[in-house]
Amino acid sequence: MKRWSILLLSLLPLWANALEVGERLAPWTLLDQFDEAYSLDSQARVLLVARSMEAAKLVNAALKDKPKDYLQERQGVFVADIQRMPALIAKMFAVPAMRDYPYRVMLDRDGRVAPRYVAAEDKVLWLQLQDGRLVARQEYATAEQLAAALEQARP
């Protein structure tokens, strides 16, 4: 019983910080894989968040054969949480490999942004936005599901 109490108390902050439908997302700025800054604004309609390498691979699989501006045309933004990745690996291998992707990846190197959006680590979190407010949320466990959702989000 003591374990359950501890577990429940440790999860309480996550529930308290969970973003609710109708709430405005707090602004943030991150650098992408080209070290270019991007600030979340009211123009974004879809925010994809990958909290693990597994989830980021789902996004890559869903977007790898798409045209260069595919995600941007859908007013989509992709945030990858890479705070647990060793800095040397990120700098020498992972980020340079991301430069070949046909889409921008906002890199959360310090865990300042991605933890705001609570989701399963192995899934891609989809936040549907309108004028900077959350209107819906969904989690995707496969690249096929994510690709189909992106197709439906046509501009």
From TrEMBL:
This is FAD/FMN-containing dehydrogenase. The keyword Signal applies. The lineage of its organism: Bacteria, Pseudomonadati, Pseudomonadota, Gammaproteobacteria, Pseudomonadales. Keywords: Signal. Residues 1-18 form the signal peptide.
